[in-house]
Design goal:
Layout lengths: L1 H36 L7 E4 L5 E3 L9 E5 L5 H12 L8 E6 L3 H10 L8 E5 L5 H5 L6 E5 L5 E6 L3 H5 L1
Parallel strand pairs: 3-4, 4-5
Antiparallel strand pairs: 1-2, 1-5, 3-6, 6-7
């Protein structure tokens, strides 16, 4: 009986370790896939708050630097960042800013109006209605910022730190 128990514990231990190793390899492979995927502006489609139109990577302006911000209207750092973008709108005028959140449209419309982003030519507030941001850009806390150059190549990404503090 003791021998059977030892074999059972040994077999269970081998299975757990094997599972952890396989899981680590899967996570590493997924991380590499995401890193390769975001080297240039990846394929995406997020819902515009202005209407039921989806804005995709194909619909953004070429030859302009692009800032993609993942945010939440209840995040203190995100609100600070929005305030700084609003106050320094002229510094962002030669770029396009895509602000993406999973929150409901009414909340995002109120946010856009409060910070002066509603109907701005170079700033779009978008809804991630299908909760796909993490699968496209990787697990991203709020705020997360992805800066792309005029050729659509990733320049820098920031997590959990207000981007405007660095830029301004």
């Amino acid at each position: 009986m003791k021998k059977l128990l030892r074999y059972g514990i040994f077999f269970t231990l081998i299975m757990v370790v094997g599972f952890m190793i396989v899981s680590s390899f899967i996570q590493l492979k997924d991380k590499r896939r995401i890193e390769n995927q975001i080297e240039s502006i990846p394929d995406f489609a997020f819902k515009s708050i202005d209407d039921d139109v989806f804005i995709s990577n194909q619909g953004i302006k070429n030859n302009l630097p692009t800032l993609i911000l993942y945010f939440n209207t209840e995040c203190e750092h995100c609100l600070y960042e929005a305030e700084q973008i609003s106050k320094n709108h002229d510094k962002f005028s030669a770029s396009q800013v895509l602000m993406v959140s999973f929150e409901n449209i009414d909340t995002l419309k109120h946010f856009a109006m409060e910070y002066g982003f509603y109907n701005q030519e170079n700033i779009s507030v978008l809804q991630d209605s299908k909760f796909q941001f993490d699968s496209i850009f990787g697990r991203s806390p709020v705020p997360s910022s992805f800066i792309y150059d005029i050729n659509g190549k990733l320049v820098k990404k920031f997590f959990d730190y207000p981007l405007c503090v660095i830029i301004l």
